[in-house]
Amino acid sequence: MTGIQVILNGKIVEANEGQSVGAFLLEQGTRITRNTRFKQKPRGMFCGIGLCFDCLITINGIPNQRACVTSVEEGMAIDTQEGAGSIR
């Protein structure tokens, strides 16, 4: 796989082209992708196939993107999310 650069929580890091954002996050040691809106409970990768919506994350300023079914792209900005997230 070819290495590409993405931005994870403000830091430039290398990812493998073609891997999912979820796989990339696990590879980076990021287990929690967001906290729930009301009780601030931690959530992360659970089903890995896009059904449970536990892996929601902010990608390129757009909140509530599923990390497990989104592929990393060169220059992509990936941020862990608080609650429902906010558009930047």
Structure in words:
- The protein has one helix spanning 21-27, and strands at 3-8, 11-16, 34-35, 42-43, 56-59, 62-66, 77-79, 81-82.
- The protein has 88 residues and is mostly beta strands.
- The longest helix has 7 residues, at 21-27.
Major beta-sheet overview: 5 strands, mixed
Number of helix segments? Answer: 1
Q: Largest beta sheet: what is the strand line-up? A: 2-1-7-5-6
How large a portion of the residues is in β-strands, by DSSP E? 25-35%
- Strand tally: 8
Gyration radius (Cα, Å) is: 12 Å
* CATH H level, superfamily name: 2Fe-2S iron-sulphur cluster binding domain, sarcosine oxidase, alpha subunit, N-terminal domain
Q: Level of helix content? A: under 10%
Broad shape: globular
CA distance, first residue to last residue: 31 Å
CATH topology: Ubiquitin-like (UB roll)
Structurally, the number of domains stands at: 1
Which CATH-level-2 architecture?
Roll
Organism: mine drainage metagenome
Protein name: Hydrogen cyanide synthase subunit HcnA
InterPro entries: 2Fe-2S-bd_N, 2Fe-2S_ferredoxin-like_sf
Enzyme class: oxidoreductase
Which features does this protein show?
88 residues, mainly beta, Ubiquitin-like (UB roll), 5-stranded mixed β-sheet, 3-stranded mixed β-sheet, 1 helix, 8 strands, 8% helix, 34% strand, 2Fe-2S-bd_N, oxidoreductase
Q: What's a quick, concise take on this entry?
A:
The chain is mainly beta and 88 residues long. Helix content is 8%, strand content 34%. It has one domain (3-82): 2Fe-2S iron-sulphur cluster binding domain, sarcosine oxidase, alpha subunit, N-terminal domain (Ubiquitin-like (UB roll), Roll).
